[in-house]
Design a protein that fits this description.
The protein is an alpha/beta fold. The protein is built from eight helices and ten strands. It has helices at about 10-15, 15-25, 60-75, 95-105, 120-125, 140-155, 195-200, 205-220; strands spanning about 1-5, 30-35, 45, 55-60, 85-95, 110-115, 120, 130-135, 190, 195. Helix 4 crosses helix 6 (about 140-155). It is elongated and about 70 Å long. It starts with a strand and ends in a 14-residue tail after the last helix. The model has no long low-confidence stretch (mean pLDDT about 95). The structure holds 6-chloroguanine (6GU). 6-chloroguanine (6GU) binds near residues 90, 134 and 137.
């Protein structure tokens, strides 16, 4: 990760899925502070745009220097060639399941978190990153988007999830995009709300059919587009 705020990743890399995947040796996440590559005494990483206008633009110098350090550090750690460079920006390709699977197959990713009004265009021209967006809204910086990308990517690495957390029933998994249906755990009754009888029946066939029907119903209700259908507006 190349970022102006490495501290934002601390909790993310030391908890949950990413922590476990690191402990299993499936992935490592290394944080690189772009500001360490500033060259002036103010440690500037951004400057005013040529041609005028509001906002600041991330400068080439610190970003290219940080990229070079990342390449050197990766090689020292035994990686070969170059990293697949990803730049997080609202102008990028929308992130989806097929891109996550593709990224999960990469041995080495270099993830740039955008900030300020944008990047000096020569960062795009010189480093040729894959530009990725996580949706049609603007965030204050690329860090949160980078965590979305890393979490989604690590889940796709074989062995990252335990058997119990298998991805096949997930919403948006390969096996056909559909939403997950309702789930219940103990107690059988909570504040007057009861677990559906079929789930207590022990009839595996009936349970599987119920789950299938519930998943379809929920998908049709909330995301008919996933089934290639129009929204009917029918309540559940
Ligand atoms: Cl990748 N970055 C920022 N700053 N905002 C976003 C985004 C990324 N994706 C959606 N909004």
């Amino acid at each position: 990760m190349l970022t102006l705020f490495p501290g934002m990743f601390e909790g993310f890399t030391t908890h949950g899925l990413v922590r476990v995947a690191r402990e299993k040796g499936l992935v490592d996440v290394c944080l690189h502070d772009v500001r360490e590559h500033a060259t002036d005494r103010h440690r500037s990483v951004d400057d005013r745009p040529y041609g005028g206008g509001p906002g600041m633009v991330l400068m080439c110098g610190p970003v290219f220097a940080c990229d070079e350090k990342v390449v050197a550090a990766g090689r020292a750690a035994g990686l070969s060639g170059e990293p697949r460079r990803v730049l997080l920006t609202p102008q990028g390709t929308p992130l989806g399941p097929s891109l996550l699977e593709e990224l999960a197959r990469e041995p080495w990713l270099s993830v740039f978190c955008g900030h300020y009004e944008g990047f000096d265009e020569r960062i795009r021209i010189g480093l040729r990153p894959l530009e990725v967006s996580i949706g049609d809204y603007v965030l204050s910086g690329g860090e949160v988007a980078a965590m979305v990308l890393i979490d989604g990517t690590v889940r796709m690495i074989p062995g990252a999830l335990g058997a119990a957390e298998a991805t096949q029933d997930d919403s948006f998994s390969r096996s056909g995009a559909r939403l997950e249906g309702p789930q219940y755990t103990r107690p059988r009754e909570f504040r007057g709300m009861r677990v559906p009888e079929v789930l207590l029946s022990g009839d595996h066939q009936a349970i599987a059919e119920w789950r299938e029907q519930q998943a379809l119903r929920r998908t049709r209700e909330r995301r008919p587009d996933l089934l290639g259908e129009e929204h009917t507006g029918e309540p559940q």
